[in-house]
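Deliverable D5.2: sample structural annotation.
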Amino acid sequence: MEADLKPLEFEGIRRLLEKLCATPFGADAARNLGPAPTVGVARQLQDAISAARLGLESGEGPVLPELPDVRAAIRQVSSPGAALAGTAFRNLALVLRVGKELRPFVEKRPGLLPTGAARLDAAADLLPKIDAVLMPNGSVREDGNAQLRQLHAELKAEREQIQKTMQSHLSAPGAKLHWSGQRACVHLPDGATDQIRGVRRGTGPGGHGYLVEPMELVASNNRLEKIAGSIEQENQAILRALSDEGRDRLVGLQHLVESLTWLDLAIAGAQLSIHLNAKAAEMVDAPVLTLEEAYHPQLILAYAEKRGPQPKPLSVQINADCPILVVTGPNTGGKSVSLKTVGLLTVMAHCGLHIPVGGRAVVGNFTRIFVDMGDPQSVAFELSTYSGHVEVLKRLLADADDHTLILLDELGTGTDPEEGAALAMAVLDHLAERGVRGMVTTHLTPLKSFADQHGSLRNASMRFDHERLEPTYELEIGVPGRSLGLVIAAKRGLPDNLVSKARHYLETLHQHS
C-alpha cells in the first residue's frame, strides 16, 4: 500500500513503538515501519501481536531483555579472514542465548513467529565454542588451547624470576616495582639519587618520578615481550578461527537477528495494543471500511495521561452502498479529526498493528491512501493555497482507482465558493466513476444537496449540541451538517440587531442563488 503518512501523523505511532522496543533492531524496525507489502504479511504481524499480548496478559511472556547491537559484528564476520573482537563475540553469545531461551515460547505460541521457532537457535551451537575460548569479559582464555597454556606458563615463570631479581633494587627510599607494558622497571621518586645502572624509560605514573630499567633485566624483559607477542598472535589466531565458525553459521545468525527484530516489534505492538485497548482488524480484499466506536490513538493516550478530555467514539462505514462520505458541519466539530482517525487506523491495520475500536473493525485491501489535509501552500514553489490544492487533485486524479481510499479536508476551498463547489462536484463525479472510496469534508453548502442526489455519495455530519454550543465529535451518516455561524455568533454575545441584519442578508443571498 502507498500512503501519505505525514499528514496522518503516523510518525507518532512509530515513536511510541520505538520506545516500547527492547532491542536496537526492533527500534529500527519501529522507526521504519510502514504498510506491509501484502495483506497477508499484515495479518502475520497482527497474529504475532495477538499472541504476544496473550502471553503478556497471562504473565507467561515472553519479555525481551535489552540486547546489544550485533549487526555490525555479523557483517564483519562475513568477511573471510576477519578476526572479530572478543567483546563482539561476547555480545553475540548474549544474543544467541536469548534466542535459545525464546524458542519454547514460540513453540507454545507459533503465531509469534511465522518463520518458525527453529530460526531462533539455528546458530546456537556457536555458544559452547565461544565459552570454550573466551572469558566473560571477552578476553581469550589462558587455557584456550595447548599452545596458550604453555606460553602463559612461560610468561608467569619469567615474571616471577624478574620480580626476584628486582628485589635488590627496591631497597632505596621510595623505590617501587613498575610494569611498563611487559617491561619491569624501578619507579624512583623525584630527586632520588640514581644509583641503578640501567635505561631511563621516562616519567612515572601521573608524571611523578622516573622509571629505570636495570641493565641485568633488559634481556629478561625482551624475552617477556617476545612471549607476550606470541600470546597475542595466538589470541588472534583463536579469534580468526572463531570468526570462521561464525561465518559457517552466517545464515543462522542473520535469521536470529531477523527473528528477534520481528519478536521485539510484536511484543512492542502488544504493549501498545494493551495501552490502547485495541484489537486486530479483520483484513479483507474488498475495498471496504467498517470502524465501530473507533478512537484516535493519541487522544486515548492524552486522556490516560490526563492531558486531554475523554475522547468520543467514531463509527464509519464505507462500502459499495456508501462509497464516499461528504462530511459537513461547523468548525471545531471534529471533521478533520474524523478524517485523521479513519486514515491513521487504516494505515495501522495495513502495518499489522492493532487498532483502538470498541466494536467491529473491517479494513479493506486499499492499495493507496490519498490524503489532502490542511493547507498545502508552498512558499518554496510560490503556490497559493488554492494552487496547492489543485496540485494535490492532479496527483489524485492521475492515480486513483477502485482500491484507493481518499481523505480530503475542505474540498473546494481556497477560491470563489461557487467555483470551488463546482470543481468539487466535478472531482467527486470523476472519483465516483472510478469506484474510489473515502471521506471528504467541506463547508460548501451546494455540496450537501449534490451529495443527497448522487448515487455514490452520502451526506454525513458531526453532531453538535445546540444547547451548549459544543461539538459532540460523533459522526452521523445520512444527515448533512447545519450552518451554525449566526447561531453561535448570537449565543456568544454579538448584538441582536447585528445578527438580525445578518440573517436578513442571508435570506437575500438565498433568494438570488
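Annotation notes: Confidence is low (pLDDT under 50) at residues 375-383. The CA atoms of residues 72 and 88 lie 9 Å apart.
The annotation will be released with the project's public dataset once the embargo ends.
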